[in-house]
Amino acid sequence: MGDDGAFHRGELSARVGYASFALDRRAAWRDDVPRIEALFASPDAMTIVVAGEMPILRRDGDSLTVWHRPAEIAAVTPLLARVFLGTADEGDGGAPRFAVAVSADLGAGHGAHAGHVVNDLRSIAIQGLVPPDELASLGAGKAMVDWHVRHGFCARCGGKTHAAQGGWRRDCAACGAQHFPRTDPVAIMLAVRGEHCLLARQSRFPPGMFSCLAGFIEPGETLEDAVRRETQEEAGIRIGAVRYLAAQPWPFPSSLMIGCIAQALDEQLTLDGTELEDGRWFTRNEPRLMLRKQHPQGLFCPPRSAIANTLLWSWAMDGLTP
Ligand SMILES: [Zn+2]
Q: pLDDT digit string (tens) for 223-276?
């Protein structure tokens, strides 16, 4: 569904990690409490399981899957949160799909179980442990159950909140406030000037890795404003034209990365030393080598699962311009 449709439209977003969400969300069903309970109890229901910070994967023959039988999980542990993600329609007759949170202890126990693999979400994505549509469901499901675990109390009055709408809302019984899961927009941009692009690194990056600049979009800003402000703040470079290329759900914990290519108007870099450890202009051939891990100095860019990889590919390989 989302995957095929996006590919048919030629959208760049279709090639980034966490972006191939293929379930039918069935939003109209979320208010129907008996129906949601029946779906969770149905024999063809499946659920994502997140233990603390760690998703639990299940061995299915030679491959791994994010999907578990809900009854098997609910039988051994209390569920700390539950979200109805939708139904899997293709060839599966509308089988219900959920995400649940369980205690971190259960993850530790399952790590020793031959039928399960416990790993962090980034590693699951980078190592390609599950198919793209399952990774997208896992990212969405983990973002949602994380939100429940962190939002037990009302931001307005401090009262206890409870899940509603199949897990897509939390309501406060004390003051009646309704709370919705948030998505935080982040601008990520490849600034280019002729045959050069600007890449930088933060100290927390693995040695040798360079990436695009990025920053949260602030209230009152357009996407283009945020691209110009962040590039000016972090690298002292003024930006002219800004072109949107692709977006990526980024469940760490709940961002949407909005990727742009931007026309740099200056050459002289003034790096913000607190945000960036290093940065420079790269000739177009360098990211080509970095994308293939053939750079003579061993430099490389973020993996295919990250949108920075798509932005670099679009400019260095496909010749897109601002
Ligand atoms: Zn309240």
A: 999 999 999 999 999 999 999 999 999 999 999 999 999 999 999 999 988 889
Write out the two tokens for 275: 């945000």
CA of 59 to the centre of ligand 1 (A): 42
Contact 248, 257 (CB under 8 A): yes
Pair type for strands 184-193 and 178-179: unpaired
In the reported structure, the alpha carbon of residue 163 is separated from the centroid of ligand 1 by a whole-number distance in angstroms of 13
- Cis peptide bond upstream of 43, omega within 30: no
Structure tokens at 306: 């990250």
Give Cβ neighbours of residue 131 (< 8 Å, ≥ 6 apart).
none
Distance between Cα 268 and ligand 1 center (Å): 51
Give pLDDT tens digits for 196-233: 999 999 999 999 999 999 999 999 999 999 999 999 99
| Pairwise CA distance, residues 303 & 124, whole Å | 12
Distance 178 CA to ligand 1 centre (A): 8
The SS3 assignment for 260 reads: strand
- Beta-carbon contacts of residue 127 (< 8 Å; ≥ 6 apart): 119
Dist. CA 81 → ligand 1 center (Å): 19
Dihedral pair phi/psi, residue 121, rounded to 5°: -60, -40
Ligand 1 centre and the CA of 179: distance in Å? 9
